Amino acid sequence: MDILSKVEPRDLKLNANEWVYNSLCQLILSGEFVPGISFTFRGIANSFGVSTMPVREAANRLISEGALDMSEKRRITVSQMTQSKFDELKVARLNLEPHLAGLALNHINSKRVNLLINIDKNLDYAISTGNVVDYIKYNYQFHFGIYEAGSSPVLLPLVRTLWLRFSPFYRIVAGRAGTQTMKDFHKSAIDAIKDKDSVAL
Fold first, then answer.
1. What single DSSP character describes residue 68?
2. What's the pTM value of the predicted model, to 2 decimals?
3. In degrees to the nearest 10, what's the CA dihedral of 45, 158, 36, 53?
């Protein structure tokens, strides 16, 4: 897999450590890495055209965030999902994400509403065509298009970490069940945003 073609070009304002970390997050959140897949520091470094040091530091951050594991053979592995982990992630998301959306609501302007509408159109197309990769990508963009509108230095990073743990598993679910079985309420969410109705959102 040519992973470099699936990440944003390097922003020269970022040092190598931050760019590699952001790029790995992007791959995880978009479902490019599924649970159980493993790779080496050297393999990622070669793909990204960097030394192993920034890869090692980025991987260690993601290990501490629960998105990656380190195997006994010193290979980086995307964390597997378990029932207990799933149950805890569900509780955390159900408690944090509605609150985060509510905090963001008053900061969502018409420009962002139009952005959300366009993202949802792309998502609907991905659903209709069975494109799992785009489905995962645009679903993430929609949710965080809402959450990032507000200013929440505590909750936003926490929720992003939850998605880092959940997204690889979600990719498998969407792939096995098919995108057309995935129900979303994004149009209802957009209506709630337009009405400034935090409860409905």
1. E
2. 0.88
3. 20
Q: Alpha-carbon dihedral of residues 93, 67, 8, 40, nearest 10 degrees?
A: -170
Tell me the average confidence (pLDDT) per consecutive run of 10 residues in the chain, 201 residues long: 63 82 91 86 90 94 93 85 94 96 96 97 91 90 95 93 92 77 88 96 95
Residues 6 or more apart whose CB falls under 8 angstroms from that of 182 comprise 127, 135, 174
pLDDT at 2: 57
Q: 78: buried, middle or exposed (CB in 10 Å: 19+, 13-18, 0-12)?
A: buried
Q: What are phi and psi of 38, to 5 degrees?
A: -130, 155
- Alpha-carbon distance of 201 to 198, in angstroms, equals 5
Asked if residues 191 and 138 have their Cβ atoms less than 8 Å apart, the reply is no
Asked whether the beta carbons of 62 and 28 are under 8 A apart, the reply is yes
CA separation for the pair 55, 32 (Å, rounded): 17
Q: Are 67 and 31 in contact, with CB atoms under 8 Å apart?
A: no
What span, in angstroms and rounded, lies between the C-alpha atoms of 161 and 146? 16
For residue 40, the SS3 value is: coil
- pLDDT at residue 161, as a whole number: 95
Sheet holding 68-70, edge to edge: 38-39, 76-78, 68-70
* Bridge partner list, 39: 76
What is the rounded CA–CA span in Å between residue 119 and residue 12? 27
- Looking at residue 166, what is its pLDDT? 93
